[in-house]
């Protein structure tokens, strides 16, 4: 529109555009502390000019768009970074908990009780007829068993708690996937109407960051502007449907399986556990199903060696009343009688854990003992009975045989390779003080009660190097325990340091993102002053046109 | 030029403040506990090293304890044998006096009474207990090793041995082996030293020799009394020799104890170097952290105040 009214319209466009700019600046200021908020900027554009005499004349301004100020590279980097951050954060928290179970481990807990138990064999050796010393030793054995039970319970409790955490994280991931799918629709719809869906974009970016922190997801931007998300190599949603992640406990392997049902696929869910490597979920799975499991196995092996090495030596010794072939700890090996009248007996323990057979067959009579492999009946070893007993090592087992009075007896020995659960079941057998086998040769009341050779041998077990399955080098019980403590320490330390490093990297990226997308109160305040002035000037223009129109209206009467 | 925004400033200040607080917390924890590591995660290698050192210390402590027990027991045996030696010297003196031709049967009957008391004294000494166990009965530690016959029912002055020929041991080294000097016998088979007048009445050892001497005195047997001088002398020498050997064992044990105590001190030093915090360093680090935190808090306050002043005044 030309003429004076056109000038008024120019003023009106200025008022409208600057009002939009003032509103946007105010919106920015009010969101100065909103996490994930990206500042907005009004894009001013000139109106299409009038083509008239004397030429093209401007017709005012338009607030064409409200743009969200972001750097996509920084935004993507920040999102990706969150996967590593989430992994180390959850690892640090859960490993920190395990680490705390070993508070002052150098002098307390299992280390102290292992030391006290083995050292007390020397107290018994120094006072072999002292029943109080023997009873104390039995108590120390119970205490040691309780330490193992307690550690096992703590590990189990941690794994249980982490299991709940895994389920919670999966629920969170599902909620967020569904929300992103909804936001994609809303964004596309808004764009279809020619609007800038800045609030939706901010929310989608924030939720993408949250998913990335929760698990290792891959994000792709489609050409139409929607955000695609892949979990375990599978698309998380289609146009119509949303996939579903689940955490399923596998009791056979005692671990969690993460499954995913893709949106456009029928049939059973896919197992993506091995592809969940990052994020909070990946961290919890790693700690629960790998690290704590490995520590539990380490503890079981330690209990296994303590029980078997002490039992092997103890069964060869003699108690104060002449008892022999008695286990100190509940055995980890099973012995089943398969023939004979029951007048003899057999006590079996694992001698060499790294080479023990799953099962062996034992035949014994008054003259000797023969041991065969259960698998192919190959003779593994034989021994001579002396004073009614025989000690023989074969197939990785230490066997103490009480020969039958008449005829022969046979046994099956099995379970030498069963390590799992040993720590939970380690306890002293139903021993009396007299049963403690400190002597190397038969003793009875008043005779040979001072024989303490076997007690010395058992004390020495704590320093003796034993073969632990899966270890390259033999180690003493103590060294093996120390290696476990060092392992958990190294993991906890690594997770602390990596988490610290990731936090620093994330903070740096966030600082850079805020430098671009964050709201500066000073900037926005300056803009408000600028837009206020422009608004006032536009209003003045309208006022001026109003005065001119008044003049024009009065013209016919002035003559 | 970097664009500085409000949230960026806040977050940056908070992060720096958190870091300073964490550093101070770590420094305070180290100073208050005095340890470099409370949990393995604080210092995994140090924790594992201290565990090994602690076990070595516990074993060393136990071996020192064993050696002390052994030394006490051997010192007691040595002392008993010294007393037996003294009693035997008195018996020998009595034999020399009674060998004099001027002594009549009355004198010798009185001397026999005295010799009987000396024999009883020797049996009592040989049956001395070290703690709860007898020392001269081999591994038969709960029954008196020597039993004197009841003269009303049995042959008089017969001392029989009830022990065996094994030995209790103490572990004074790191292995339970005699070859590696890890074990030391702390009981003796008493009959090999003092004799068994029932099984071997003719031996030139304390109890058979004393029995023959008493019988010679009672029988006013000049020849027997004369022979007793040499036999008792031989028995005395055996006891004295054994006592001297025990003396060397005891001294060796004392040397072992002081050597192990030195080793224990070295281990403690090693543990302290690995485990303990260097307090002056830790305290100065704590003071530095406190200052840094104060400065950080002050700087944060100033920065926020400045921003506020610029914007709103």
- What about the largest sheet of chain B? 2 strands, antiparallel
What level of helicity do the residues of chain A show?
A: 40-55%
CATH class of the largest domain in chain B: Mainly Alpha
Structural class designation of chain B? mainly alpha
Arrangement of strands in the largest sheet of chain A: 11-18-13-14-15
List the total number of helices of chain B: 7
Given as residue ranges, the uncertain stretches of chain B (5+ residues, pLDDT < 50) are none
Given the helix and strand composition of chain A, which structural class is it? alpha+beta
Percentage beta strand of chain B: 5-15%
The CATH homologous superfamily of the largest domain in chain B: f41 fragment of flagellin, N-terminal domain
Greatest contact pair? A-B, 68 and 61 residues
How would you characterize this protein structure?
The complex is a heterodimer of chains A (559) and B (313). With 559 residues, chain A is α+β, with helices and mostly antiparallel strands. Chain A is built from 10 helices and 18 strands. In chain A, the strands form 6 sheets. In chain A, strands 11-18-13-14-15 form a 5-stranded antiparallel β-sheet, with no helix packed on it. In chain A, a hairpin with a 2-residue loop joins strand 6 and strand 7 (234-235). In chain A, helix 3 runs antiparallel to helix 4 (131-192). Chain B is mainly alpha-helical and 313 residues long. A two-stranded antiparallel ribbon of chain B has the order 1-2. In chain B, strand 1 (129-130) and strand 2 (133-134) form a beta hairpin. In chain B, helix 2 (44-98) runs antiparallel to helix 3 (105-126), helix 3 packs antiparallel against helix 5 (206-218) and helix 5 (206-218) runs antiparallel to helix 6.
